[in-house]
Amino acid sequence: MASILEEYEDSLSRASFPSQGLDPDIRHSGFINASLETEIPMFSKQRIDFTPPENITSLVVCSNQLCMSLGRETIFRIDLVKADQPNQVDLGRKDESRVHKLFLDPSGSHLLIALTTNECFYLNRNAQKVKTLPKWRGHQIECVGWNKFIGKDVGTGPILVGTVQGHIYEAEISTATEGGIFGPNLDQYFRHVHTLEEETGPAPVCGLEIDRGYGNRYCVIATTPKRLFQFSAKITEGSEQQGFSLLFNQPADTLPSIQEFPGNLGYSELTVYTQKLRNIPVAFAWMMGNGVLYGNLDFSRPDSALSDLQVWEYSSTNEKPKSIVLTQFHILLLYPDRIKAICILNGQLMFEDVFTEKFGPLRRLVKDPALGQIWIHTERAVYRYNVKHESRDVWKMYMSMDKFDLAKEFCKDRPDCMDMVLAKEAEYCFQNKKYKESAKCYALTQNYFEEIALKFIEVKQDDALIEFLLKKLLNLKQSEKIQATLLTTWLTELYLNYLGTLESNASQKKLYLKTRDEFRTFLATQKNKDCMINNRASIYELLASHGDTEHMVYFAVLMQDYERVVSHHCQHDDYEEALQVLSKHKDETLFYKFSPVLMQHIPKSVVDAWIAMGKSLVPKKLIPALVNYSQSAGTQINEAIRYMEFCVEELQENEQAIHNYLLSLYAQFRPDSLLSYLEMAGTSSNLIHYDLKYALRVCAEHELHHACVHVYRVMELYEEAVDLALKVNVDLAKSCADLPSDDEELKKKLWLKIARHVVQEEKDVKKAMVCLSSCNLLKIEDILPFFPDFVTIDHFKEAICSSLEDYNQHIEELKSEMEDATQSAKRIREDMQEMRNKYGSVDPQDKCTVCDFPLLNRPFYLFLCGHMFHYDCLMQVVVPNLPTYKQVKLEDLQKKLGSTSQPSKSRSHTKEEDNISLGRSQQSHP
Hints:
Protein name: Vacuolar protein sorting-associated protein 18 homolog
Strand order of the largest sheet: 1-28-27-26-25
Distance between the termini: 155 Å
Membrane topology: Peripheral membrane protein
Number of strands: 33
GO molecular function, one term: protein-macromolecule adaptor activity
Organism: Leptobrachium leishanense
Keywords: Coiled coil, Membrane, Metal-binding, Zinc, Zinc-finger
């Protein structure tokens, strides 16, 4: 670092910046901000803490590699990453030759040392000794065009070399083949490819730049003191190593592009700006006789890569620049005692730094293409400039040039500047009657809202005002709900007014449709919907006041206010559309509400929609929509029956009201289907879903006797069923009479009813006899009273004979049963007599079958089969296996015995004596 004394001396060098005041044409936007200009200097200078032992004759810097020539024969190298480890290489020359120029490739690996004796040396970054380039001898090297696309650490690849004599040579240096059998072969080749001329003949080649554009198209820019040449050609991919001969060996009629200027300094210098080391350059600057030619580089152009050319002319003084460097936005010119920075956007002087004469005049200005640092050297000192925020004021320049997109690009991270640019752009568009573009810009500024809105109202630009409000609405924060509500309401009003104006003008049909779509998009935006959902009443009022029913329906759909939508369609007799809305959104409540109206006009479609809804609808709640049609037998009723059948058959609906209503519809309009429905429902009252009494009343009301008979049967009212069935036919009555199978008395009674009807009403004796044979409970004598007195017995002869035969057979059966009973009684008396003579005996050693203790120790039971049990043992075994009711009965008997018998001991003794005496008594009677 510099010492305190040196810093004091450096402070004597004055750096001046032109005034950075704001453009007086820029209106204040209302943005509350701090000062825009309290920033560090754009170009900050630092003198390197280095005192050269000899004068510096030349200096180059690339990729942090700094090389300088000191005196006549010393090369001083510094890796700026390791600045404390400099390297010094001697040329080893004892003659009067000195270094003319140094050339360092962009990677910092290859250093060319041109001497004033028309010789050239090569020094690799990894080498400590220079190498002679014998093929280069005899040429005064003035410039080198490096091939940054092919060059490597061990070789330069094909490069171009320009000489003072005006010749361009193609050469290549490679260390990979150095040290072969026949000695070093460092310079691979060195061949002439072209000569640059001016009007007086060959002229020195002052600058060379090699670049590769798109599609493998190469371009070479070469300069002389007065002319700039362009050579371009497409080189096949993979053949780049073969060199640049194709660029220069073109047909004679294909001349290179030339730029020529009259002034002549005797020298010129070419510089380019590249964003990154190996990227394609985007701009150039050429310092020549009467000024600096600068512009953009576009290698996609077929004729010339130079575009947007401008010339910055020198001042009228005789002072001319010595060297030039191009940055992104500035041209830096080096004079003997100062450096100037010219803005390439407006050609204004932006920076000037004057040096003292202590270290000698300024010699050379160079730039490190990799890091962007700028270096200056005198004979005794080296300076470095760091470029900070070079684009800080670019936005202002672009803004003054009305290039607002570029201005915004360079103030993205500076909201105060961005606000100024937007305000200026908005005003510019407004003045040029580009109202929509102006509105978009105004919406992004902090200008007063009311002022801007009034501007558009005054010029009657509703579409621009709408655009402004839309952008403002979009930029509101989530918490600004009141502002959002006001804006959405105002926008709705503006849209409706604008649409009304356009609709009345037939020539504005396309604009009307476009605006209508924009309005609908505005309404449908989720953020706007969330805002309007609590303000929907106001929006509805606006739509109604304008009579815009189309958008009222559209808005209602967005708000999911389907009731309003369906109601609107119904009021306008658009029932199909109303049903379509119901079917699409599947709102059960709305189905229940609007089905009565829709069923009056489109019953089939409504029932189809109900069926499509399936179990989502409660059929019971749809009955009111169907009841209105119960008095007519038209299509509507048929559709009602269809839906009720769907509920019963498909949905397996068990609701009694559904079944009752279907039954009533059948009874009224489809009596043929009623009996099938009743039979399908079954005959078990517990499994039937309709009301039996209601069904009986409906069937009776419509005189459907057969159906009534079925209901009576289900209700087990068999007498009523038979009575009513006899009005239909006897067979139906017979089927009813057989139902009470477990009540023979009732069954006989029912058959007697049938027989009486057959005899008395139909007067058909044969049928009566059939009835007699159909029921085995009836006898001829049961039905004889029903016949009139004048009926002859011949009609009953067979029946009477059959009856007498039955009686005779029955008497015989009774006789047989009596004989069997007599024999059974006789056997029982014999068994009883035999039982009296049976006995059993107990020996003293006999034991209880359960506990295996002596039997005579306690009361016991003796069975004639041989089993013996103590009383208590038998109770323990038998009682748990008895049913509950028998256990209870046994306990009662024990209680009764206990209250009437003697104590157990005396009772046991007495019983034992009784048993013994009984045994003795039985033994005495064989």
